[in-house]
Amino acid sequence: MAFTTLRLPPYPKLVTNNRFSGIFASQFHSSALPSRLVLGSSSSCVGTLSLSINHHSSPWSSTAFTCFSQTSELSVSVDTYGSNTERVVVLVIGGGGREHALCYALQRSPSCDAVFCAPGNAGISTSGNATCIPDLDIFDSSAVISFCRKWGVGLVVVEPEAPLVSGLANDLVTAGIPTFGPSAEAAALAGSKDFMKTICHKYGIPTAKYQTFSDASAAKQYIKEQGAPIVIKADGLAAGKGVAVASTLEEAYKAVDSMLVEGIFGSAGYRVIVEEFVEGEEASFFALVDGENAIPLESAQDYKRVGDGDTDPNTGGMGAYSPAPVLTKELQNVVMESIILPTVKGMSMEGCKFVGVLYAGLLIDKKSGLPKLIEYNVRFGDSECQVLMVRLESDLAKVMLATSRGELKGVSLKWSPGSAMVVVMASKGYPGSYEKETVIRNLEEAECVAPAVKVFHAGTAFDSDGNLIGTGGRVLGITAKGRDLEEARDKAYLAVEEINWPEGFYRQDIGWRAFPQKQFSRNA
Predict the structure, then answer these.
(1) Shared domain check, 93 and 158
(2) Where does the record place a coiled coil (predicted)?
(3) 256-302 pLDDT per residue, tens
(4) CATH code, domain with 237
(5) Which of 35, 74, 190, 259 sits 20 to 30 Å CA-CA off 464?
(6) Beta bridge partners of residue 116, listed in sequence order
(7) Is 139 helix (H, G, I), strand (E, B) or coil?
């Protein structure tokens, strides 16, 4: 068996452990998968690491690193699978739950030698899914490029929309670094809902009727003419919180004032889109796009509202499952033909080819049964990414590299059978104000309650006493696979109930749309 020794420049805070992998490793990983270099991070030491990874050992064993001496060189032996296999070091930009899921999937990729994540989070580093680089400024293109050149990064995956809109992908591509993520011009599909609607109108893509306003009085007059219910959206990026579904005119007026007069979303809310309310079921559709070609991912459905029964305010997402029964194969073909491919062609004709993942937020019209485009995001969904990544069996690094090179034609993806579900645990008070730095316990126990359970971290850190604490609104994504959706749901909630976090909460009805009402109750 062939082994190659990689000698990497020193990283000043290199050490890992594998605190949260547990039984999950044996359920989600085949022993035939290749081992690879995956470096976790903390602040405890600097050392030389010399490790030979055998092809037939568990991939998770490579994360149990030991610090040997105070030197400045890292030496790792990695099974190369022969000279014909292209291997790549990947840098993931971001630090939330979807980035954790991507790092997890990239770590399992046979063509991936190492995974870095900037800034990352506590869960990513302690799980051994990536080396986190918390001090790398992801809005400083020159710093990111310098890091890539120093560490031989062959693929950068840019997830958050803010650095995409600011042009990080443009600069990386100009520097000759393969990048999975759209240019600033193409990222406007998510950065401006007015731009997205304009593309829809120009290229015949079905979407809800709308008008764009920068004047509150004009917006209110239009709302009065249209009546309620009606939808008001901030034009720019608002962290998933810039949408108000108003059931009365008064609610609609209040939403307009909050955005255009009070400026609660800053520059993101200087313009608003007032959109017709379409009754139907929401679904998420993802496609990889290389500028000219597009391939669909598996279907997924998320839950945006914070309360059980889809009540109360919108959030970034409180849970999801895959596959989504509402998106039949026939309907997926309709989405590709009527929404995704016209968008890809339209963006190319506009001179801003889209490269990366295109996330279409859909609404399946109750009257017609056909999909309408509600919004575009230019990154994976959180929490849909978690369920997709635990089901993906293809080499993610290889597929992302092909996307960045315009080589998706003929590529197909392999998915595990069965279903997956993620239940998000959030800080009490979210999406409003909430207490931070509250201690979370029993995550290892949660991952061991049933086979194929994985806890992805979104907003976690360690306090001075070494306790895991919540630092954000949405904090954990408890994800499980099952033979069917019912089994995945039962495993996920069993793990959630094992976690000791009095200051956290979660929805208890994730998946209800997919079950007959009499089968939904978990306590029945």
Answers:
(1) yes
(2) none
(3) 999 999 999 999 999 999 999 999 988 899 999 999 999 999 999 99
(4) 3.30.1490.20
(5) 74
(6) 91, 131
(7) coil
The C-alpha atoms of residue 266 and residue 264 are separated, in whole angstroms, by 6
Identify the band that residue 522 occupies on the pLDDT scale cut at 50, 70 and 90: low
Question: Residue 31: pLDDT band by 50, 70, 90 thresholds?
Answer: very low
Report pLDDT digits (tens) over 437-466: 999 999 999 999 999 999 999 999 999 999
Please state the φ and ψ torsions of residue 124, each to the nearest 5 degrees.
-65, -45
Q: To which H or E segment does residue 385 belong? A: helix 384-391
In tens, the pLDDT along 322-335 reads: 999 999 999 999 99
Helices 216-226, 249-256: crossing angle, 10 deg rounding: 160
- DSSP symbols for 95-113: -SHHHHHHHHHHHT-TTEE
Kindly report, residue by residue over 328-377, the tens digit of the pLDDT: 999 999 999 999 999 999 999 999 999 999 999 999 999 999 999 999 99
Same domain as 227, residue 176: no
> Do 137 and 174 reside in the same domain of the chain?
yes
The 3-class secondary structure across 483-523, one letter per residue, is: CCHHHHHHHHHHHHHHCECCCEECCCCCCHHHCCHHHHCCC
pLDDT of residue 513: 84
Range(s) of the domain holding residue 107: 89-183
Q: How many CB atoms lie within 10 A of CB 263?
A: 12
pTM, entire model: 0.83
Give CA–CA dist 340/406, Å, rounded. Answer: 17
**54 or 318: which carries more pLDDT confidence?**
318
Please say which residue of 258, 277, 296 terminates a domain: 277
222 in any annotated domain: yes
Are 102 and 171 in a shared domain?
Answer: yes
Q: Does residue 241 lie within any of the structural domains?
A: yes
Q: Are residues 146 and 214 in the same domain?
A: no
User: Percentage of residues in the chain with pLDDT exceeding 90?
Assistant: 77
- Cα 144–Cα 148–Cα 150 angle in degrees, nearest 5: 115
What are the residues facing 153 on neighbouring strands?
A: 89
Judged by DSSP in three states, 119 sits in strand
Q: Would you say residue 134 lies in a domain?
A: yes
d(CA 453, CA 489) in angstroms, rounded, equals: 11
- Bond preceding residue 160 cis, omega within 30 of 0: no
User: How many folded domains does the chain comprise?
Assistant: 2
What's the CA dihedral at 517, 518, 519, 524 to 10 degrees? 120
Per-residue confidence (pLDDT) for residue 312, from 0 to 100:
84
Give phi and psi for 220, each to the nearest 5: -65, -35
Query: Six-digit token pair at 229?
Result: 């219910």
229 and 264 belong to one structural domain: yes
Check if the beta carbon of residue 356 is closer than 8 Å to that of residue 180. yes
CATH code at 164? 3.40.50.20
Which of 277, 292, 308 terminates a domain? The answer is: 277
**Half-sphere exposure in the Cβ direction for 401 (13 Å, CA):** 19
Q: Is residue 100 in some structural domain?
A: yes
Q: By the 8 A CB rule, do 38 and 115 touch?
A: yes
Same domain, 178 and 215: no
